[in-house]
Design goal:
Elements (H helix, E strand, L loop, with lengths): L6 E9 L23 E10 L2 H5 L13 E6 L2 H9 L5 E5 L10 H10 L4 E5 L10
Parallel strand pairs: 1-2, 2-3, 3-4, 4-5
Length: 134
């Protein structure tokens, strides 16, 4: 691609309790145009406010299986701790353009980097805020 990207992810953010309506319905037709289409993925960003929402982020969740990537945006310290320690996610999304509602502890960040499959942390602050709306 012209800007050096090899892939893009279409994001679907949710806040609150997950339901069948949150299954991936993103069409990747735009990624099939020649001559060299980018690698396209679907991404779900879940805004987590409490422990019970964090527990739903596991490999047995059928809604999460409909997406290529699963990100969590923690909204408090307990949600961040759960994301770092227990959640089966690909990305922890943190918006540094706003005041953080939690503290980033070195031990938790290291644990998240060891557990996360994809990127570990996705730091937002210099991109469009619509990417992480909750």
């Amino acid at each position: 691609m012209e800007l050096g990207y090899i892939g893009i992810a279409y994001n679907g953010p949710i806040k609150g309790v997950m339901s069948d309506n949150d299954r991936c319905s993103i069409s990747l037709l735009l990624c099939q145009s020649p001559p060299r289409p980018p690698q396209c993925s679907t991404r779900l960003t879940v805004c987590v406010e409490n422990h019970s929402q964090a527990l739903a982020l596991n490999s047995g969740n059928p809604i999460l299986k409909t997406y290529d990537l699963v990100a969590v945006k923690p909204l408090d310290q307990n949600a961040l701790d759960d994301a770092c320690d227990k959640s089966e996610i690909d990305i922890i999304a943190i918006d540094f353009s706003e005041r953080l509602p939690f503290r980033l502890k070195q031990t938790k960040v290291k644990a998240a980097i060891e557990v996360c499959f994809f990127n570990g942390f996705h730091f937002i602050g210099f991109v469009d805020k619509k990417f992480l709306e909750c």
